[in-house]
């Protein structure tokens, strides 16, 4: 998760936070259950998702973790990243060669699966 300050044309400061949806949504207020359902559906089909949330900022100092609270969800960015068509063949070939494939990822467990 990362947060930045944006100065609007009228001078207002806005904190913009983006990151793993599970982390960002936990810091948001009034997240509708339908949003969590939509997120689960995206994870279930293997899509990567980034959440974006905002709130007004009082001053122009470097944001800290303590500032990343009481956010309003702006939206979910969904990235389609399907396996390559030849992935299964490559994995089978590696297995026949005695090579075990391990997956290390920071993605949601459902996406990794």
How is this fold's topology laid out?
Blueprint: E1 2-7, E2 13-19, H1 21-25, H2 33-44, E3 48-57, E4 72-79, H3 87-96, H4 109-112
Antiparallel strand pairs: 1-2, 2-3, 3-4
Structural features, described:
With 113 residues, the protein is α+β, with helices and mostly antiparallel strands. The protein has one domain (2-105): Calcium-transporting ATPase, cytoplasmic domain N (3-Layer(aba) Sandwich). 27% of the residues lie in helices and 27% in strands. The chain contains 4 helices and 4 strands. The protein has helices at 21-25, 33-44, 87-96, 109-112; strands at 2-7, 13-19, 48-57, 72-79. Strands 1-2-3-4 form a 4-stranded antiparallel β-sheet. A hairpin with a 5-residue loop joins strand 1 (2-7) and strand 2. The chain is elongated. The model has no long low-confidence stretch (mean pLDDT 92).
What does the overall shape look like?
elongated
Query: What would the CATH topology be?
Result: Calcium-transporting ATPase, cytoplasmic domain N
The top level CATH class name? Alpha Beta
> How many structural domains in the coordinates?
1
Kindly state the percentage of residues in helix.
Answer: 25-40%
The stretches of 5 or more residues where confidence is low (pLDDT under 50) are: none
How many β strands by DSSP? Answer: 4
Count of runs of 4 or more consecutive helical residues: 4
Beta-strand percentage range: 25-35%
Report the C-alpha radius of gyration, rounded.
19 Å
What is the CATH architecture assignment? 3-Layer(aba) Sandwich
Strand order of the largest sheet: 1-2-3-4
| CATH evolutionary superfamily | Calcium-transporting ATPase, cytoplasmic domain N
Mean pLDDT: 92
Structural class: alpha+beta
């Amino acid at each position: 998760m990362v947060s930045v300050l944006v100065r609007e044309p009228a001078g207002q400061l806005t904190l913009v936070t983006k990151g793993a949806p599970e982390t960002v949504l936990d810091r948001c207020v009034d997240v509708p259950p339908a949003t969590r359902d939509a997120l689960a559906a995206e994870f279930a089909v293997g899509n990567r998702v980034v959440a974006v949330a905002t709130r007004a900022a009082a001053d122009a100092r470097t944001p800290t973790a303590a500032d990343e609270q009481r956010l309003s969800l702006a939206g979910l960015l969904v990235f389609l990243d399907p396996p390559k068509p030849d992935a299964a063949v490559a994995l089978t070939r590696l297995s026949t060669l005695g090579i075990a494939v391990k997956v290390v990822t920071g993605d949601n467990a459902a996406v990794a699966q």
